[in-house]
Every structure is written in C-alpha cells, then in structure tokens.
Amino acid sequence: MTAPLVTIDDVQAAAARLSGQVADTPFLPSQTLSQLTGAEIWLKFENLQYTGSFKQRGALNTLLLLTPEQRAAGVIAVSAGNHAQGVAYHAGRLGVPATIVMPVGTPAVKASRTRALGAEVILAGRDFAEASAALPALMAERGATLIHPFDDDRVIAGQGTVALEMLRDQPDLDAMVIAVGGGGLISGVGAVVHGSARRPELIGVQSALFPSMAAATGRWGQGVPGGATIAEGIAVAVPGTRTRAHVDALVDDIAVVDEARIETAITLLLQIEKTLAEGAGAAGLAAVLADPARFRGRRVGLILCGGNIDNRLLSAILRRQQLREGTILRLVAQLPDTSGSLGRLCSAIGEMGGNINTVVHDRTLMSIDAKTTQVAVEFELADPELQPPLRAHLEREGFAFALEAVGG
C-alpha cells in the first residue's frame, strides 16, 4: 500500500518541535517588484536563516524525531550545499554525531564550513550520484541514520513549516511560486495549502537545464538536458519517489525558466530588496518575470529559499546583467596619432558619465595608415538612456567611432 501523504497536521506538529530553534523569517510585500511585475509580490526571506537556507527546517525536524539509540549512533547525509549545513548545524547543537558525504570536487570553502559546524566530512565520488553510492557502506559500518535531502516525510513536514508562517502573515495569497529540485519544499508547502481554508494556486518552478520533476509528472516533454546551472540548489536529475507523489496530488503546475531569467531575478533582488539570493532562491521571481500576464493583479508569495552563492559567480551574474541592460559599452575609434588625441576621447566619454574600464591603444596593426591609431575603450554607464546623448556629444567633438554593447 502507498503511504499516506504528509498533511497539514504533520506540518503543524513539526512547527511545534521547531519553535524557538529555527528563525520565523520575515514575509513582506515588495512595492518595487510589485510595480515592476504588475503582481502584488510578497517575499519570504528564508535566506536569512542561520545557515542561509530553509533546508535546516527539514533537517532539524528529522533529528528531533530520532530515537535515543539513533541519536547516539549518529546521522549521515550526502550534500555539497545547504542540506549539509542544515544537518551539520543542528546535529552539532543537539550533540548528535554527523557525517556529511560530499563529492570530491566540492569547493573547499563549503567543506570547511560544514566541518566548522561540527560534522565529519568525507569526500567521495565525482558528483552527487557517486557520492550517494558511498552511503550504504558507511551506514552499515557506523549504524548511522540517513537524513535524505528531500525524499523523506519528516523532511517534507519540516520544510512545510515555512508555508504555515506565510499564510499566517498573509492568508489571502492568490498564488505561491516555489522552487523545485528534489521536491521536498513544494511537497511540504502543498500539504499546508491543501489543508487550509483558502487554497492559493501552487506553482513549482525549475531551471530549463534540470526540469526533472516537470518531466517526471508529465508537465514537460523535452527531457532533462543537465549542465552547468546557476541554480545548483534545484539541479536534481531525478526527483524523489515520495515527493513526486506529493507533487502529483498537490501541485497545480510547474513552470520552467531559463538561466538568463534567473540571473535577472538575482540581480533585481540585490538591487531592489538589498538581499542576496542564490539561483534557487531567485527562481520564483524568475517565473513571474517570465510570464507576467499569468500573475498580473494577483497576490503572489515567493520563497527566497537560499542565499548561499559563490562570490565569483555573483560577480559574473552582475556583469552579465549589465551587458543585457546595455550599461557596459565598447567604443572603437580611429584617432590621429598625435599627442592628446586619446586624452580628448577619454575626457569626452567621462564628461557624459562614462566610467572607463579598459583602453586598448593600437598604433600599428589595426590602424588604417601610419598617421592614425585605433583605440578601443570599454566603459560603463549608470543608465542605458545615457547612450544617445553620449553618442551626440562624441559626434559634436568630431570623433569617428563605432559604439556597441559589450557582448552585443
């Protein structure tokens, strides 16, 4: 017989266990994002949890349900990200030995952070699947209990507590848009939604590189290509069995969004809300940006489910967004090879608000003759609307040039 689904009663019981041990994070409306999208956007700031993610809810609920014998033998998990930190942190708090298996290629900072939270870290395998293959032997050797990142009813119930807080603070939501990887979060949210008097539409969102749950439940027919996604937290190739059962029964739809839309959402949350969201944390906003007509005029709840993002990746995302917006430009000009010509060009760019990044001054190979030099200047503008006056100013100053968006 198939086990019954997690219910709102299970989630409420989990909330009672977690009370005082997990942050009751803010759930606030965003006036600017609402104006931008045409929907009334509410944000649940799970990126403000101690470990930077909602994942600690499910991890703690599972730990609190262990028997004394299981606690003494310890727990084990496989993860290179938020689940690892959630398990390590709360196991350490409760005095439960914790072992975290991570792929060999896990960034050293993530492994060291997990160790600092009190867990033993074992590096095994090249990826999540190979790291997972090391679990059975370790569990048998140590007698440890597995805390699965998503495919466990205790984890699902713990993750669902976030929805209880959302509907308590704003009971009149029309829709909830939830990032989906393995499906633990949306399964728990679905249990709460279907146990509530008012049932907002429940929409999952996945990256176009890993639409595994959408494909498994018949909502996506183009396969799961995989690849390097910025939404690592929801980059799950095969969803869970229990979570799939919950999604089949409780979720209305699953949207699929591309990487560029997720990058834009990360940038907007940083610029507008002054909050840092990782790719998975920004996926809900990405879905609204991708289909504004669907959400226009509706009150929409989004979960910023994580804020752990690599600094180098964030830097690349912000620069790529500047390229899309047309605020990083390249100007190529032919100048007389005389003293002061380059200075006049750079001054003219600066007078119109251009902030120069690089200058390439070629006096030989790219010049059209011996008395001419070619200059390529890459610079930033605060606003793409400054392009026309900049162009007009350079023309008045007598420069012959080509101006283009970098990457355009």
Structure write-up:
The mean pLDDT is 92. The protein has 18 helices and 14 strands. The protein is of the alpha/beta class. α6 (108-116) links the parallel β4 and β5. The chain is elongated. It has 3 domains: 8-54 and 152-321, Rossmann fold; 56-146, Rossmann fold (3-Layer(aba) Sandwich), CATH 3.40.50; 326-405, ACT domain (Alpha-Beta Plaits), CATH 3.30.70. The strands form 3 sheets. Strands 1-2-10-7-8-9 form a 6-stranded mixed sheet, with helices on both faces. 44% of the residues lie in helices and 19% in strands. The longest helix has 17 residues, at 153-169. GO terms for molecular function: L-serine ammonia-lyase activity; threonine deaminase activity. This is Threonine dehydratase. Residues 330-408 form the ACT domain.
